[in-house]
Amino acid sequence: MKTLDLSSRRQRGATLIVVLLLLLVMTLLGLAVLRGTTMEERMTANLYDRSLSFQSVESALRQGEALAKATAVASVPSSGCSGGVCATPVATDTDRWLDTSFSGWRDASNDLSDDNTPMPDARYIIEYMGEAPTWPACDRKVPIDGQCLAPRFRITALSSEDGRSTVMLQTNYIVQ
Q1: Which terminal Cβ of the chain has fewer Cβ within 10 Å, N or C?
Q2: How many C-beta neighbours within 10 Å does residue 25 have?
Q3: What pairing do the DSSP bridges indicate for beta strands 85-86 and 106-107?
Q4: How high is the pLDDT of residue 155?
């Protein structure tokens, strides 16, 4: 009988070690799954934030296009900026949207926000880029057709806030 008791005691110890090893493996698997889930949640939050910034900037770009359409060439300042409308950029100067000291931005009205989804703030500038042909090669005809050339504007919209995605969109817009 004593041999049976000794054998059963040894088996109980082996079972305990096996169960502890299985528990350790399951804990490690659980931690790996938790880490992956946390990373996916961060990625989703970043994508959502970028999407909100993109929508805000796109709305600002459309507001800039509407202002460019309403802006007469005579009201474009000869140098600098006024109310978000800027003179033709100088080729040797730093681009306005890259210059951190540039203060000529116009704030976009954010009509996309609601109580549940606050949209990031966006701003834009409109730069007069001169006259541009409204259809291909119309400026090569002699004499030039009176409706061939139209004012062209470069519109840059930017959403940049601390801790949020930075999104910039730019378009060339010909007023017709």
Answers
A1: N
A2: 10
A3: unpaired
A4: 94
Contact between 64 and 84 (Cβ < 8 Å):
yes
Stretch (H or E) spanning 115: none
With a CB cutoff of 8 Å and minimum separation 6, the contacts of 147 are 134
Can you read off the two tokens belonging to residue 91? Answer: 């080729």
Q: Which residues contact 49 (CB under 8 A, 6 or more apart)?
A: 164, 165
| DSSP designation for 74 | G
What is the share, in percent, of the chain residues with pLDDT greater than 70? Answer: 89
Q: Which of 98, 90, 64 is nearest to 171 (CA)?
A: 64
60: number of Cβ within 10 Å: 26
- Neighbour-count burial of 135, counting CB atoms closer than 10 A to its CB (0-12 exposed, 13-18 middle, 19+ buried): exposed
For residues 70 and 155, what is the distance between their CA atoms, to the nearest angstrom?
14
- Per-residue pLDDT tens for 59-68? 999 999 999 8
**Is 132 in a helix, a strand, or coil?**
strand
Residues 105 and 168: beta-carbon distance below 8 Å: no
Pairwise CA distance, residues 28 & 21, whole Å: 11
Q: Supply 12's token pair.
A: 């109980």
Q: Which two tokens stand for residue 32?
A: 């790996």
